Amino acid sequence: MILKPFAERHRGAAQISAELNGKFASIKDGYAYALMPPPIQGLGNGSGYSLYLEDRGGLGYGALQNALDAFRAEISRTPGMGFPVSSYQANIPQLEVKVDRVKAKAQGVALTDLFNTLQTYLGSVYVNDFNLFGRVYRVMAQADTEHRQTVEDIGNLYTRNNRGQMVPVGSMVTATSTYGPDPVIRYNGYPAADLIGNADPRVLSSGQTLAKLQEIADRVLPRGIKMEWSDLSYQQVSQSNAAVIVFPLAVMLVFLVLAALYESWTLPLAVILIVPVCMFASLVGVWLSGGDNNVFVQVGLVVLMGLACKNAILIVEFARELEIQGMETIPAALEACRLRLRPIVMTSVAFIAGSVPLLLGHGAGSEVRAATGITVFSGMLGVTVFGLFLTPVFYVVLRRFGRHPAWKHEKPD
User: Fold this and answer.
1) Is 356 in the same domain as 404?
2) What separation, in Å, do the N-terminal and C-terminal C-alpha atoms of the chain show?
3) Among the residues of 134-272, which ranges form H helices?
4) Of 200, 219, 238, which closes a domain?
5) Using an 8 Å Cβ cutoff, are 316 and 395 in contact?
6) Total count of domains within the chain
7) CA separation, residue 339 to residues 272, 334, 388 (Å)
């Protein structure tokens, strides 16, 4: 399939999916829906939320269906949540076949042979493959369609007993019409119903969507029915606190390296304290562009930590060398800013200019590149503007608390 160029496409995948679902809703004899593909292939069936409702209290399939319907109705009434879909149905017409084991034993029919007969005739059994005219054909054993249409057809089947005689299946089994679930799903060992859907990213972020679903579940689901996340939603919930660990760990690692370099516990803070300013500028840029705090924004924040510290190190390192040579703290900080202004501005402008294609690019994956681009662009712009003024202030204030007397006697290499 050859797709049109991006310039000729006037509808997005989400819009096409919504239009298809509107047309699918008019189908009376079937059930179909369109979903956006997952961002990671193999991790779920769609790009939105995914969860299961578990019957932990043994309430039955009917109660699970009622809870699912109430849950879906409440979600559809929530702004920005859309209408979720589920493959679970508890009222599908089925046949319940009961085996009279006493009669089967009396006629010498093993239960294994009886069950294999039902499976072969009513279902299907793979036999083997054979080659013919250069092609491979599969052999499947199954009763002809006209012999497995009604309930009476089950009683007309025959199986062999231990004496080699053919015994009618109808003399040992009783088939009745009933209703039951389809498909039969078990999640974490409990009977479950699946549920997937998409929220409008312009209204709710993925984190807000999961929080809203949890709030609805706590309010709507009866006792004994619990909600469990799956696929990408499970990964997001289980790893939601990873950023709380990763960012402080990255800052701590930079701090320890600088503490070993400067042989001081206070001076590295003059470099580290510019990181919150950088992150604040990045998040403001993401907010102004209408984005959200996703994984690509967080990757950009980790990159900016190193870049922000690099600019601050240029000033702090020069000011430290000037102090070792005998200059006072404030003049040393001002002189370091004057001497390192050009390198800082040149490297910052070069990096900011390099991130512009990420912002203006279009085509496949442009949303991902734009999220990272706006993060590094706004963060680097903020650290360049504010870092030149705040880094000397941090340096002077911290030097008053952590003055290193040996610097007055050291000679630079």
Assistant:
1) yes
2) 66
3) 152-155, 206-220, 231-238, 242-262, 267-272
4) 238
5) yes
6) 3
7) 21, 9, 12
Task: Provide the domain limits for residue 289.
Answer: 242-409
Amino acid identity, residue 54? E
pLDDT interval class at 406 (50, 70, 90): very low
Strand partners, 168: 158
Question: What's at 300, amino acid-wise?
Answer: G
Q: What is the CATH number of the domain that holds 36?
A: 3.30.70.1440
Non-local (6+) Cβ contacts of 269 within 8 A are 255, 394, 398
* 304 and 401, same domain (yes or no): yes
> What tokens were used for 104?
């089967």
Same domain for 294 and 334?
yes
Count helices and strands in the chain by DSSP H and E runs = 13, 10
Is 51 exposed, middle or buried, given 0-12, 13-18 or 19+ CB atoms closer than 10 A? buried
Kindly tell me the sign of the dihedral angle through the C-alpha atoms of 340, 346, 349, 350. Answer: negative
Distance CA 65, CA 403 (A): 70
Shared domain for 246 and 369, answered yes or no, is yes
Whether residue 171 sits in one domain with residue 189: no
Round the average pLDDT of the chain to a whole number and report it: 81
Q: Give the integer Cα–Cα distance in Å for 155 and 172.
A: 9
Question: pTM of this prediction?
Answer: 0.61
CATH number at residue 129: 3.30.2090.10
Residues found in the chain: 413
Residues 285-313 have pLDDT tens digits of: 888 887 777 777 878 888 887 777 777 88
Q: Which two tokens stand for residue 261?
A: 């370099």
Domain boundary among 238, 259, 283: 238
